[in-house]
Design goal:
274 residues, alpha/beta, seven-stranded mixed β-sheet, two-stranded antiparallel sheet, 10 helices, globular
Length: 274
Amino acid sequence: MQLPNIDWSALWRTNHDRRFKPARDPAFWDKRAPEFARHVKTSDYVNQFMAILKPQPGWRVLDVGSAAGTLAVPMAPWVKGVTAMDPSARMRELLEMRCQEEGIDNIRIVDGRWEDDWDALNIGVHDVAIASRSLIVDDLKGTIEKLQRHACRRVVLSAMVGDGPHDRRIFEAAGRTFSAGTDYIVLVNLLRQMGIFANVTFICNRQHKAYRDVEDAVNSMRWMLDGMTAAEEDRLREYLTRTLVRENGSWTLPYRRIVRWAVVWWDTEDNPAG
């Protein structure tokens, strides 16, 4: 059966840009870095990703969009070395601090982004390239080809499923319409069109965030509502004041959300792009 002649990369670019435009600016991640690093400690995402990855002692791993070492730090003891690339100065600072605190000396930290010339950054070829929740790119096909060139064994990606970490109820509470973008299925379809037969499995997180108070909750949700107006913030604050419930000394939403991420991987030797 022939796949439809659809430009999956263009579909990704059109819909992905609408949802993730703010996240293309390193300053967005500089602001989110402390909260992002804090949330990682309470999430089971890392354990599930590592169980899928199964890092090997001889691997040299390229981690694109490494943040503050979400995967690079727990991976470091199990592999030969990690190149952790991220455009956010604050994320790189936090990663450097973690390496010093934990005595990690096999992580190379690089100031770089998807669009950069990786040869100029001396990235080189690694055994495995991973991009965990960091596929914020315009040219998805070009990105896949770039990863293929820098990974001689395997490429491992994780992409959003459905709404991902975005909570529609928060958008509605602020008076804003939620606009769903593309998710992992576009990535899988593009890979198949490129002749890459990828494996797909899922990470499932039962989200249960705790907040110190209403203001802490509002500030933790700002990333979802980029450019939030004063009126939207007032509506959100009023909603949270009515909705948050006390639990174990903290405040939390009275419902639980399941956030899924698709982990998509393939062995580059068996699946040459093109």
